[in-house]
């Protein structure tokens, strides 16, 4: 992040010095920033809040004494009425938009620049909620825009929930009455600017609920359509952790409905919509693992994490063969088990410890064509493992993927534990329910695809059976029920537990569940007995 921020500031300074903003305050503010960047570059980098190749956001603390706003805009806002509120500021927020796309100049001919768009929307919203709009914006060139406003100290709604669910619901209804909406709403973008939120704080003590990011917001001239408030509620719940969303949904919906004076869907229905939309968003985000971005290196046929370094794609000569199948094999590279522990995965993905190479040896013209069209199994498994990581579902980390003319290699971390068995059926069902909340499914939910860690955590180690087209309760549950005799106590208990969590099967679905589980039992009975696995790895 610091490297990208430093590169952005170095790229921006000569261009903004050559084409400075016409607004005197913005021109003075940028001149002050470049001077501080020369004198104390490390201090300026500590002010960076968000950074990307197209945008740099800085918080200029009040203690650093940035130039204060004293132009005509503030004087006009103060003269608009004594009852208008000036929000307490703690420094300044400075956003510099610098998209480098070649088509940006053409885009600006048909749409408003991001800096001007956010500035205009904030002025409209501030007028309606009774706040003085102390902000300024300037589009210096078609590719460079600057937006500045006070930095407000307060309590983010994401940190207040579920204790302040009533206040968030009432505040969101107030914003909707002022015809504000946000198609990319996030709980972290809503801020209570007065008071503080605690477990005993009353809603009226929290202060004014203010959206702090209006990049994708809309402040309409006409009342909002009926489906827009529901969409915003779903996106708000989608941005929260599952436990927080479930604890907040009832109070949030009740107080929103009371403040808006209109009926909305039940909390359970909104949570289901939030889970499914969240899964679609994660599926879209998971495509970044195949591109060269900040966390991944990608090349022709090769994608990997930045913290994973290998000399060449493929296992080392001292790798140990774990499984050998008709269409591939699984090999383990030796290493330190301590370096590959579960708690180290977020930091290094198991790099430096034991790692597993899985091959998909499927040569031929048809398979090469499938890989060209993006249907290759190794590439798919690599992306789906990263998708589960984004959804915080226990699965082995994907570290790399590589393809050649003869097949593919998937590099992933090692799971230290014991193979799952039919005795872990309850934990497997809980794992499946978490997967279904994201709108995903699993066609091959068998114990051999999971490992139980020493901390008694169930971890997926084979993503080939994941289905992104959506959950299918009968299909997914049938594979798990096939591990038990027909009509057994375990089969009935698992089916009852799934129905209690997801709703009862109708007669047609129940008949399909029984047919699928009976068919799978027959297929498993025809298979020869497999020898005891020497490790926790499934057969390819």
Strand arrangement across the biggest beta sheet = 11-12-16-17-15-14-13
- In helices, the fraction of residues equals 40-55%
Distance between the termini: 39 Å
Beta strand %: 15-25%
For the secondary structure, the number of strands is 22
Rg (C-alpha, Å): 27 Å
Shape: globular
Structural class: alpha+beta
Description:
With 540 residues, the chain is of the alpha+beta class. It contains 18 helices and 22 strands.
Tell me briefly what this model is.
By secondary structure, the chain is of the alpha+beta class. It is built from 18 helices and 22 strands. Strand 20 (450-452) and strand 21 (458-460) form a beta hairpin.
What attributes characterize this protein structure?
single chain; alpha+beta; 540 residues; 5-stranded antiparallel beta sheet; 18 helices; 17% strand
List the helices and strands and how they pair.
Layout: H1 2-18, H2 24-39, H3 41-46, E1 48-52, E2 55-60, H4 72-79, E3 89-97, H5 104-110, H6 114-129, E4 136-139, E5 145-152, E6 155-156, H7 157-160, H8 165-177, E7 180-182, E8 190-192, E9 209-211, E10 217-219, H9 227-238, H10 242-260, H11 267-285, E11 296-299, E12 302-305, E13 320-324, E14 329-333, H12 345-348, E15 355-360, H13 365-372, H14 377-390, E16 398-403, E17 408-413, E18 418-419, H15 425-437, E19 441-442, E20 450-452, E21 458-460, E22 466-467, H16 473-481, H17 489-502, H18 507-526
Antiparallel strand pairs: 1-2, 2-3, 3-5, 4-5, 6-8, 7-10, 8-9, 11-12, 12-16, 13-14, 14-15, 15-17, 16-17, 18-20, 19-22, 20-21
């Amino acid at each position: 992040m610091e490297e990208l921020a430093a590169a952005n500031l170095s790229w921006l300074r000569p261009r903004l010095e050559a084409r400075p903003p016409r607004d005197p305050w913005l021109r003075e503010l940028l001149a002050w920033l470049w001077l501080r960047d020369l004198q104390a570059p490390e201090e300026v980098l500590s002010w960076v809040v968000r950074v990307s190749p197209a945008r740099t956001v800085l918080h200029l603390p009040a203690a650093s004494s940035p130039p204060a706003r004293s132009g005509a805009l503030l004087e006009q806002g103060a003269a608009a009425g004594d009852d208008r509120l000036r929000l307490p500021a703690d420094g300044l927020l400075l956003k510099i938009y610098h998209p480098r796309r070649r088509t940006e100049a053409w885009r600006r001919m048909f749409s408003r620049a991001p800096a001007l768009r956010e500035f205009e929307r904030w002025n409209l919203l501030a007028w309606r909620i009774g706040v003085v709009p102390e902000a300024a914006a300037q589009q210096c060139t078609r590719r460079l825009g600057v937006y500045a406003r006070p930095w407000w100290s307060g309590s983010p709604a994401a940190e207040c929930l579920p204790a302040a669910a009533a206040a968030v619901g009432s505040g969101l209804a107030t914003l909707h009455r002022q015809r504000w909406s946000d198609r990319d709403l996030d709980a972290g973008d809503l801020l209570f600017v007065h008071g503080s939120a605690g477990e005993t704080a009353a809603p009226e003590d929290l202060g004014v609920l203010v959206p702090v990011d209006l990049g994708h917001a809309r402040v309409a001239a006409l009342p909002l359509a009926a489906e827009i408030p529901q969409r915003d509620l779903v996106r708000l719940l989608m941005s929260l952790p599952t436990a927080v969303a479930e604890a907040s949904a009832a109070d949030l919906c009740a107080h929103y409905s009371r403040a808006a004076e209109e009926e909305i869907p039940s909390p359970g229905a909104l949570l289901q919509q939030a889970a499914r939309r969240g899964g679609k968003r994660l599926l879209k985000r998971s495509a970044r693992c195949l591109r060269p971005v900040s966390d991944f290196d990608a090349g022709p046929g090769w994608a990997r994490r930045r913290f994973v370094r290998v000399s060449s794609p493929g296992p080392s000569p001292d790798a140990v063969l774990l499984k050998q199948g008709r269409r591939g094999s699984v090999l383990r590279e030796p290493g330190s088990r301590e370096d590959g522990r579960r708690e180290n995965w977020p930091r290094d993905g198991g790099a430096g410890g034991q790692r597993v190479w899985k091959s998909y040896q499927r040569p031929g013209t048809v398979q090469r064509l499938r890989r060209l069209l993006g249907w290759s199994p190794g590439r798919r498994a690599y992306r789906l493992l990263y998708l589960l990581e984004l959804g915080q579902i226990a699965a082995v980390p994907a570290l790399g993927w590589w393809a050649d003319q003869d097949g593919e290699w998937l590099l992933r971390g090692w799971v230290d534990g014991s193979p799952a068995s039919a005795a872990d059926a309850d934990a497997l069902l809980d794992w499946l329910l978490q997967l279904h909340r994201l709108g995903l499914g699993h066609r091959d939910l068998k114990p051999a695809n999971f490992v139980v860690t020493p901390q008694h955590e169930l971890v997926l180690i084979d993503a080939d059976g994941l289905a992104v087209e959506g959950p299918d309760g009968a299909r997914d549950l049938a594979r798990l029920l096939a591990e038990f005799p027909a009509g057994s106590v375990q089969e009935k208990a698992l089916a009852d537990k799934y129905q209690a969590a997801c709703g009862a099967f109708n007669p047609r679905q129940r008949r399909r569940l029984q047919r699928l589980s009976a068919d799978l039992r027959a297929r498993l009975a025809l298979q020869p007995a497999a020898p005891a696995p020497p490790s926790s790895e499934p057969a390819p």
